[in-house]
Amino acid sequence: MKFKSPPVNSLSLDFITEFCIGLEKLENNRECRGVIFTSAVPNIFSSGLDITEMCGKSMEHYAEFWRAVQEMWLRLYGSNMVTVAAVNGSSPAGGCLIALTCDYRIMVENPKFVIGLNEAQLGIVAPFWFKDTFVNTVGHRVAERSLQLGSLHSASEAHRLGLVDELVPEVKLQEKAAAVMAQWLALPDHARQLTKSMMRKAVLDRLVAHREEDVQNFVNFISKESIQKSLRMYMEMLKKKKR
Ligand SMILES: CC/C=C\CC/C=C/CC(=O)SCCNC(=O)CCNC(=O)[C@H](O)C(C)(C)COP(=O)(O)OP(=O)(O)OC[C@H]1O[C@@H](n2cnc3c(N)ncnc32)[C@H](O)[C@@H]1OP(=O)(O)O
User: Fold this and answer.
1) Domain assignments of the chain as residue spans, ordered by start
2) What's the sign of the alpha-carbon dihedral 121, 127, 130, 132?
3) Closest among 130, 129, 127 to 219, alpha carbons compared
4) What gap in Å lies between CA 60 and CA 77, rounded to an integer?
5) Residues framing ligand 1 (Cβ under 6 A)
6) CB atoms within 10 A of CB 192
7) Which tens digit of pLDDT belongs to each residue from 84-110?
8) What is the CATH architecture of 2-171+180-242?
9) pLDDT by residue (tens digit) across 190-213?
10) Residue 241: its pLDDT value, please?
11) Does pTM surpass 0.90?
């Protein structure tokens, strides 16, 4: 699945809806046993949640958007397929979450590319299921420090921390992703799927059990004037950076 929503593959409501429909089609196709996620936009895997979806909109819109974000994570983290992220560009926040939610992450070894859960830098807080996914990948200590500081890690640092599993030159990315996929698909599906489910069930169940509470928490948090102001300032900062 190639993300192609220029300029930065931000995760808008439309993007997320299309992502979920695409994933469901693949999940229901008995001939499809694995998916490689990558980007068709140069230098960007995904810039994370579309900030304009969380800024200056109605409470109803925030709730609809957050349910879609939850759905995307539930479907991907709970997928029976082998999921490989071929990270060919920067991947902050929600973009990093997509990569973390996969079974395996390969990143291009470009010193300009960054990845991480940088929510704290925007004055917002990564929800518990972002945090759980991060902890399950890198362990508690690395996740705690990285989340509190809202760190965006270079590709080599991300590799050192275990946030990505492998680094490759850009020209080798697709070949490497295909080789990893072949290795994972060599196992019997039922054994691999039951193992995956056993490892992820507690974290998935936790969101399912608290889904509406999590929506209300997000809506209350994001609609606070102080948070709206932080997000507006952040968007301004992104635009000024270009001038
Ligand atoms: C209780 C729970 C509460 C809250 C939890 C909410 C969780 C949120 C998780 C998230 O995902 S928040 C989003 C965090 N994302 C970021 O911080 C990334 C911001 N973007 C960047 O750092 C850079 O844009 C980039 C490194 C991805 C790419 O840099 P570059 O190639 O130089 O592009 P530009 O910065 O010039 O951006 C082009 C264009 O795109 C707009 N844009 C960038 N990111 C976003 C975004 N996430 N949402 C919406 N729009 C975005 C940027 O403003 C530029 O727009 P122009 O109109 O100026 O062209």
Assistant:
1) 2-171+180-242
2) positive
3) 127
4) 26
5) 7-8, 10, 44, 47-52, 90, 92-94, 118-119, 122, 124-125, 127, 217-218, 221-222, 235, 238-239, 242
6) 17
7) 999 999 999 999 999 999 999 999 999
8) Alpha-Beta Complex (3.90)
9) 999 999 999 999 999 999 999 999
10) 83
11) yes
Q: Are 132 and 204 in contact (CB under 8 A)?
A: no
Intervals of the chain under pLDDT 50: none
Q: What is the pLDDT of residue 243?
A: 64
